[in-house]
Amino acid sequence: MQDAYVGSWARESYLSAEISGSLRDLNHRFLDLAASRTGWVAGQVAALSAAQRAAAAGCPYALFDLRFQDHGHWRVRLQRPRSWHVADVSAVDDRGDDDTVGFVRLALFYAWHVASSEGIKAQLLLGMNGATVEEFRRTTVNQLPALVATEAEHLSARWSGCTAYWSALTAAALRTDLKALRRVQLHGLQLAAAARLPGP
How far apart are CA 20 and CA 122, in angstroms? Predict the structure, then answer.
């Protein structure tokens, strides 16, 4: 049932099966990671079983954020990439946060791939600023590893301040109510689209 439900996003939407499948996997990894952390969103996600997290992960947009909307942050990071050093890996690994580092490595590669090949989709999928999409397009894959060590600290839940969204998402997943879950996931598309509107 879950495969049919998640697969319907790819058939009905702007996402290819490969892009949506990878995004679902990243969302699931993020929810598993969030469940082991502290904070309000983590508390909501921790109440879900593995199957319920998998259902919640089937959104046609990222549930995680790496400050993708902050063009100033990414302009500096992508125009002046540091050289990759072994010390960068050990400094992060010494904090015992290998899962976060591994997730951020995958998330940055996914962001680079979507920005490079899908263009405007990165804005809705990841909440990327349009100028940040262009910065990622000009970046080579060899520059990504140097970003992981510093960007891991910026990993957060997307719309973490929107308690209504996260409460509704986790409640629908907890009840295994696929119709309610789909409605909440569609609401997330509205949040993603609204973020792209010009400010007042």
Answer: 12
Integer angstrom CA distances of residue 23 from 60, 79, 89, 198 = 8, 26, 25, 26
Q: What percent of the chain has pLDDT over 70?
A: 83
pLDDT at 159 over 90: yes
Closest CA to 166 of 67, 70, 68, 30: 30
Q: Are 162 and 191 in contact (CB under 8 A)?
A: yes
Note the pLDDT tens digit of each residue in 167-178: 999 999 999 899
- In the Cβ-directed half-sphere of 199, how many Cα atoms lie within 13 Å? 0
With 0-12 / 13-18 / 19 or more C-beta atoms within 10 angstroms meaning exposed / middle / buried, residue 139 is: buried
Are 181 and 172 within 8 A, CB to CB? yes
Listing DSSP states for 28-82 in one string gives HHHHHHHHTS-SHHHHHHHTS-HHHHHHHT--SS-SEESSTT-HHHHHHHHHSPP
pLDDT digits (tens, 9 = 90+) for 109-120: 999 999 998 778
Cβ contacts of residue 32 below 8 Å, gap of 6+? Answer: 50, 53
